Amino acid sequence: xxxxxxxxxxxxxxxxxxxxxxxxxxxxxxxxxxxxxxxxxxxxxxxxxxxxxxxxxxxxxxxxxxxxxxxxxxxxxxxxxxxxxxxxxxxxxxxxxxxxxxxxxxxxxxxxxxxxxxxxxxxxxxxxxxxxxxxxxxxxxxxxxxxxxxxxxxxxxxxxxxxxxxxxxxxxxxxxxxxxxxxxxxxxxxxxxxxxxxxxxxxxxxxxxxxxxxxxx
Length: 217
Known about the structure:
Blueprint: E1 10-14, H1 21-32, E2 36-38, H2 39-52, H3 60-68, E3 72-75, E4 83-86, E5 89-90, H4 98-108, H5 111-122, E6 128-132, H6 135-139, E7 145-150, H7 153-160, H8 168-181, E8 193-196, H9 202-216
Parallel strand pairs: 1-6, 1-7, 2-6, 7-8
Antiparallel strand pairs: 3-4, 4-5
Helix pairs in contact: 1-9, 2-4, 7-8
């Protein structure tokens, strides 16, 4: 492990949807024996609850009122996948569906929801690896290491097609649409190390980040 007991280390990994940031963040976190924090799961949890309760995902007031009624917790433990519990029930398996994919951007742009989620993330103690869209630029500007992963929409769609019921063309179109909706959140931090993952394997990306962390630690 590269982090000392007394030194807090926050590593941010940002990028567009399906750029590989979640898998890379998990790999880096496991290598460093740190918790992995997925900011996107909190947005997905809010989206899932809104859809379940037939609330318009774009209705900020209704969404925030809904969240007040439930105890939502992001569980991040070293080596284990992130889980989300709602009122002590694990809802993790319900957060990665086509319906959630199609609606999560409508919630992600709500200032009140983003503020609520960012506050929850800032409450995380100790060292960790966190992935999202503006983790390095907005949520953790003090992060010790910042990375921004990019990949073409075609490559990202190919990576995601095995996880969804939709076809490749539909997934690519949906990713481009989501990029446009998420545009304000997709600007990398000025001091982030940018890495294009189009021609790199998952392990190659993880090793590139680990080398950077070791050199600059």
